[in-house]
Structures are given as C-alpha cells and as structure tokens.
C-alpha cells in the first residue's frame, strides 16, 4: 500500500540526514542507551519528566504511527513492553504513563516516531489528563458517522 509523505527517505525507513534520533540509532550522537533489539533502541530522555523517563525509538525512521508499517509499529510496541519490563524489574517502577505525541500540534518535537515511558509514583504531582470537554449527542454522532 502506498504511503504519502514528503520525507522520501523516511518513507522507506532509511536514515534521514538531519534527524537526531537517526543519529542516535546510528551511534553518531551519544545517548544513555540501555535497551536494544532488532527494531528499536531505548534510552533515557535527556529532559526527564521523572527518574527513568525513557524513549523507545524505532531504528527505521517514520514520523507518525500511520506512516509506519504494521510490522514497524508492532515491533516498536514490543520494545515498549520490554523496556517497561526492564524499568519495573530494575527500578521497581509499577506505574507508567506511555505517551506518543503525533504531529507538531500534539507536541511531537522530533519527527521520528518515539514512545515516552514515564515512571509514576504516588504523589509525584504530574498531570497528563486532558481537560473534560462536553460534547452534545449530535456532534458525537456526526463524528461517529464519519468514522464508520
Ligand atoms: Zn529519524
């Protein structure tokens, strides 16, 4: 199935020259990496929201989840599972937020798909819940009719 996009190299999963995560994957920029499998690496976020805040980054470049192949996305989340397991077994983390910002408007700063795993502890004061928005039934039904 063809995929649209302007980053032709990225569309094929090849490294993109100015992408910081492609450089970290290649090892030309250092990172605090502690996990690697055939498809992803996991390393500590340079600006952690909490101790152990980790980024899981596919080795192949794609921007959005809808740009990745099913296999790329599956393997990315298998990596997330394994990294979360490492955080639990080694750091004793039993609660996490797993976040994926998709697109600039959603706060995706690096245009290379990545998953944040943020360990949480009781009383850490972090808030990631979106605000409540009331929507009327006709609006909800209109959206639903477009999606079906
Ligand atoms: Zn990249």
Describe the structure in brief.
By secondary structure, this protein is an alpha+beta fold. The chain has helices at 8-11, 20-26, 70-91, 137-147, and strands at 33-36, 40-44, 54-58, 96-99, 115-119.
Q: What is the total domain count?
A: 1
Task: Report the portion of residues in β strands.
Answer: 15-25%
SS-based class: alpha+beta
| SSE order, one letter for each helix or strand | HHEEEHEEH
Low-confidence stretches: 1-9
Net shape:
globular
- Name of the CATH architecture: 2-Layer Sandwich
Count every helix, treating DSSP H or I runs of 4 or more residues as helices.
Answer: 4
Distance between the termini: 21 Å
**Average residue pLDDT:** 91
CATH homologous superfamily caption:
HIT-like
- Kindly state the percentage of residues in helix: 25-40%
Looking at this protein, list some descriptive labels.
30% helix; alpha+beta; binds zinc ion; HIT family, subunit A; five-stranded antiparallel sheet
Molecular structure report:
The protein is 30% helix and 16% strand. It has 148 residues and is an alpha+beta fold. The chain has helices at residues 8-11, 20-26, 70-91, 137-147, and strands at residues 33-36, 40-44, 54-58, 96-99, 115-119. The protein contains 4 helices and 5 strands; from the N terminus they run ααβββαββα. It has one domain (8-147): 2-Layer Sandwich (HIT family, subunit A), CATH 3.30.428.10. A 5-stranded antiparallel β-sheet has the order 1-2-3-5-4, covered by helices on one side. It binds zinc ion. Residues 16, 19, 21-22, 61, 112 line the site of zinc ion (ZN).
